[in-house]
Write a structure and sequence with these properties.
nine-stranded antiparallel sheet; globular; mainly beta; seven-stranded antiparallel sheet; Beta-galactosidase, Chain A, domain 5
């Protein structure tokens, strides 16, 4: 296991964590963004990056879409710019513009910092599996604001895709989140994965379209992208009590000409957090309460059904603690 660090030409520091089969890069100054997930055995980079941009830091209030570099971000405490608990939060939340502190352990990277608007304290410990191409992300999110915080927390994993790749979920239902960003102009509920007689789990060629869906009634807490041409798979495994919903945004050339799929295990439904509050479908932490949970990412060769590296069913489940 090796940990190293470097700066890019813009002076942005990049941390690298690697072993014999996997190499991942993390950017503390961008909220702990995961910049790269590269499988050495397959010689495959799983993440998509915007080749038209150079990696740089951002300020709160910056526009996310025009700054979208790719990789894996986390959106917290919101997605769209909106007011929650009388606080106006910026586009795509606070974390992506928050520089995090970090410490390097023998085999781990510890990232931590405070979110200025929400008063949430964020910590993420990152480490690799010793035998399989698996990244473990161990979280503690604590409410230090002194008030109740309602929020959304979602992953935003931009993946490299090819025609014929397949999104895999065992969700029962699917609906369009926003028709402006969709090739389908209906908000009707459908049975996953067929929408208007189209199997939306299959990645089409670049055709200037977009998809933006919410998936719900999830039976197992996992979400995947399969790539048949390389017999590889990118998988999220997580605690269903933390992330009961899934969403994904896909640009098949229709969004800034990007060709990428964004997998988004998420805590809230719908996208608008005030609406999710009314439905009791978002994350809630009282003063001094915290969420402790683990997410794993498998990025490697597709395994048979008897082996699922990275699955965290035996790992600790959601714990919400309150200080005495």
């Amino acid at each position: 296991m090796m940990i190293s660090k470097r700066n890019n030409s813009n002076g942005v520091e990049i941390l690298t964590l690697e072993n014999d089969c996997l190499k991942t890069e993390i950017v503390p100054a961008l909220g702990g963004k995961i910049l790269s997930v590269f499988n050495k055995l397959l010689n495959k980079e799983f993440l998509w990056c915007n080749e038209n941009l150079q990696l740089s830091t951002h300020r709160p209030g910056d526009d996310f879409d025009s700054s979208f570099y790719g990789g894996i971000d986390e959106l917290i405490p919101n997605d769209i710019e909106e007011t929650i608990d009388s606080i106006l939060y910026p586009d795509h939340g606070e974390l992506w513009t928050t520089p995090l502190n970090y410490e390097l352990g023998e085999n781990k990277i510890y990232l931590f910092g405070n979110l200025r608007y929400s008063g949430l304290q964020y910590r993420k410990d990152v480490y690799l599996d010793e035998n399989d191409p698996v990244i473990y992300l161990e979280y503690k999110i604590r409410n230090e604001s002194g008030s109740i915080r309602n929020f959304s927390w979602k992953f935003h994993a931009a993946l490299a895709i090819k025609e014929g790749d397949k999104i895999v979920s065992d969700a029962l239902n699917i609906s369009v989140i926003n028709t402006v960003y969709s090739r389908f102009k209906t908000l009707e509920e459908f049975k996953w994965p067929v929408v208007e007689n189209c199997n939306v789990s299959l990645i089409p060629p670049s055709n200037k379209t977009m998809d933006f869906f919410c998936l719900y009634n999830i039976r197992h807490p996992e979400m995947h992208l399969e790539s048949p041409d390389t017999n590889s798979i990118f998988s999220f495994y997580y605690d269903k009590k933390v992330f009961p919903y899934q969403s994904y945004f896909a640009s098949y050339g229709g969004f800034f000409n990007h060709y990428t799929l964004i997998l988004e295990p998420c805590t809230s439904m719908p996208l608008n957090v005030p609406e999710a509050i009314k439905l009791e479908q978002c994350s809630v932490l009282g003063p001094n309460e915290e969420i402790n949970t683990i997410v794993s990412i498998y990025a490697g060769e597709k395994q048979d059904g008897n082996k699922e590296p990275g699955k965290i069913s035996e790992k600790p489940e959601l714990v919400i603690l309150k200080s005495q």
